[in-house]
Amino acid sequence: SSSSSSTRSLTQTGKQMTQPLKEAKDIFQQLADTVEDLKKIQTSIAHQTQTVRKAKSTGTEIRNAAKRTYESHQQFNAKLAKFSSLLVGCKRSLSIIVEKKSRRKGMQPQQAQSQSEMIDSLDTSLPLWPVLRAMPLCGSLPFTSKDQLAIGQEVAARVGDDWILSVVTRTRQKDSKSWVADILRAPQEQDKCHLVANENIIPLPQWEPRMDFTRAFFSKGDVVLALYPRTTCFYEATVHRPPTKTNKKYILFFKGDSTPSRTYEVPMKYVLNAVNL
After folding, report:
1. Are 219 and 250 in contact (CB under 8 A)?
2. How large is the angle between the packed helices 2-54 and 59-104, nearest 10 degrees?
3. 114: number of CA atoms within 13 Å, CB side?
4. Is this prediction's pTM over 0.90?
5. What is the C-alpha separation between 107 and 137, in angstroms, rounded?
6. Which residues on neighbouring strands pair with residue 8, listed in sequence order?
7. pLDDT (tens digit per residue) in 225-255
8. pLDDT tens digits, residue range 172-211?
9. What does the pLDDT read at residue 7?
10. What is the 3-state secondary structure (H, E, C) of the chain?
11. How far apart are CA 155 and CA 183, in angstroms?
12. Dihedral sign computed on CA atoms, order 111, 117, 120, 122
């Protein structure tokens, strides 16, 4: 009957709503935990700074205290980057919930952007890392094995034979895998997500290095994995010219391009260490 059909439909919709709500709740908890971590680190930095200022002991002790202060600053900025990624994940989860509720009420979804419009709207900027000390995901400096992927983090994920510009939607620590979605997919298209081993996921840079921090840049001749312009796919490329003060993009040759001598400008956010090719 139409009544039982409507009941089944509502039940199914309710089940579809459960997962996004659980995910949103998990993200909110992670946001709260990250805020608490930031507060603790900030308190530690303030205490360490006071220790350095009041120090009346040997130069070695002062240097050790300064080193601990710097390491705390690194931890703080790493947590800040995680918080930023979680906000992206939170926005996606809330978009799913709003979309599903709108459909339940018979409301029409907003008109989708074209792929070219979505690519043009991607933010390629990075905050500046102001010191000449290593920081994971600062320019070419890689993600370390002790770091964990965060929900909402932008990555290159190997799906089949392709490396796709993606966003982490869920993590599964028990077997070191994560769910990722094409960054251009609408948040509600959960069926478009892929479960990928973390070893086949490369996080994008989160910090722009100073121009004189040369070790955080790829050099001419280095083989990299880079985003091909006007697409969301990464391909093997060779650095022709690193970023400069006047042009902060890499100039690259892409392997297998129809015009081998042609070069392309690619933002440093989309130029990665070539691993597992």
Report:
1. no
2. 160
3. 4
4. no
5. 42
6. none
7. 999 999 999 999 999 999 999 999 999 999 9
8. 888 889 999 888 875 555 557 899 999 999 999 999 999 9
9. 47
10. CHHHHHHHHHHHHHHHHHHHHHHHHHHHHHHHHHHHHHHHHHHHHHHHHHHHHHCCCCHHHHHHHHHHHHHHHHHHHHHHHHHHHHHHHHHHHHHHHHHHHHHHCCCCCCCCCCHHHHHHHCCCCCCEECCCCCCCCECCCCCCCCCCCCCCCEEEEEECCEEEEEEEEEEEHHHCEEEEEECCCCCCCHHHCEEEEHHHEEECCCEEECCCCHHHCCCCCCEEEEECCCCCEEEEEEEEECCCCCCCEEEEEECCCCCCCCCEEEEHHHEEECCCC
11. 9
12. positive
Beta bridge partners of 119: none
- Scan for tokens 């409301």, then name that residue: 107
